[in-house]
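During the reporting period the student researcher (J.K.) took over the structure-prediction task from the postdoctoral fellow and processed the backlog of single-chain submissions. One of the processed entries is reproduced below for the supervisory committee.
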Amino acid sequence: TAALLWGAACATFAPAPPGALERAAASSSWSGSLRVTVKGELLRGRSRALVAFRRPDGLRIEIPGPAGARLVAVARGGRLTAVLPGERAYLETGATPDDLEALIGIPLAPSALMDLVLGVAPAGARAYRASWGETLPRRVEATLADGTSVALSVDDAEAGLELPRAAFDPPPHASFRRID
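J.K. obtained the following structure tokens:
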């Protein structure tokens, strides 16, 4: 019975179509809406997220809430700026795995986070599998090196877009209080 259940669970993960992994991994940009579940030492939670990136290091994450964005985080040039509009607070720090773990619970550098959503296993991952649509992963499950579990369900995504540089500028936060 266990073998049948395991086989059925694995069958729901569609492999990458020929050449899709290589094309996705080579994508210079990506934008999408996804549902994220994280279980780690510092954070456990689920959320919807709007994510965009432009290689080599431009990353934008928005966590929507009922009255607007709860979090807008932008990484570029090794710096991370996160704004919590409802709290009128902001954080400025490095865009390191430790800083991203403290903010979103996922201990990956922006480039590794980009790879994760594109179907590429992060270095040192204990487990990784992606279920593919025609050109991009639709679902990703990973257990990272530190044991953090990340599950992504992609509702809508597009790769290779022309994303404006301004999308990766720090969000406005004049008169907000600084937090650490």
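The committee noted the following: The two ends are 50 Å apart (CA to CA).
J.K. will present the remaining backlog at the next meeting.
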